[in-house]
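Contributing new records

If you add data, match the layout below exactly. Sequence lines come first and carry their own label; structure lines follow with theirs. Keep one chain per record. Anything else will be rejected by the validation script.
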Amino acid sequence: MRLRFLLRPGWLALTVVVFAFAVCCFTLLSPWQFGRNTEREQQNSSLETSFTAAPVPLDQLLAPGAVPDQRTEWHLVSITGRYLPDKEVIARLRTVQGEGAYEVLTPLRTTDGTVVLIDRGFVKLDSKSGVLPFAPAPGGIVQVTARVRSDETDPKNRDAFADASTDGRLQSYVVDSKVVARAGRIDIRPGYFQLDTDQPGVLGALPLPQTDSGPFFSYALQWIAFGAMAVLGWLYFTVRELKPGGALTAPKEPGERTRRKSVSEILAEDEAEYAESGPSK
C-alpha cells in the first residue's frame, strides 16, 4: 500500500519537524507578536492622551500601593514632596538616543509620607565611561510633574553596589524601586516616575518613545504564513508521493531494473549497424 511511506523513519522525522514548527508559529510566535502589538497600541494611546491631558495628583491616578500597568503607564502625575539625595542610586549601562549614559534615581518623600522613586533623567559618560558631574537634587519642598513608569526587571536580581569603580556612588543595573528601596533601607511604592522637561531636579529629560505602530502586527502575520506554508508544503509532497513515480516509490525488483549499457557495447552495436547498412555512396 502506497501509504506505507508515511511510516518510514525519514518521513516521520520530517512530519514531526514540520508540525512542531507550525504549532510554534500558531501558538507561540504569532501570539507573542500580537501581544507586543497590543502593548505598543496601549503605549501609544497613553502617550497621546498625556499630550493633551493635564497632570493629575498621583493618588487620583494610582491608589496607594497600586502597581503601574499598561492602563496607567506614561500618564502625567503631579507629586509634591522633598528629595532624599542621600538615598540616590545611579542606573548604569543605559542608552539614550544611541549613546551610553547613566540615569539618576532619587527617592522623594511626599507630603503624606509616602516615598516614591523619581528618575531625574540622564547624564552622559566621561572619557573613562564614568559618570559626569551633575546637579544635585534641589532642597526643600518641590512639586514635580512626572510620567508613571513600571519597574524594570533584572533577571539576575542584582542589588545596587558601590566600590572604587563607582567612586563610592551606589549603582544599579535596572531602574527598579525595589532595588533602590533595599539599597536605602526604606519603603518605596511600586513603580517609578520619570521627570518631564523643565521640572525641579530634572537633568537630561529622557526622550519619549515614538508613537508608531511598529512592525509587530506584520511579524505576527508572517509567522502565521510561515506555519501555513510549512503544512501546505508537507501536504504537497505527501500527495506527490502518493502518485506513481514519486521519489519514495518502492524500488523495482532486481530483475526489473534497467541495466545500463557499457561504452564497449554501444560501440559494438554501432559497428554492427554500420556493417549491415554498408558504406554510403
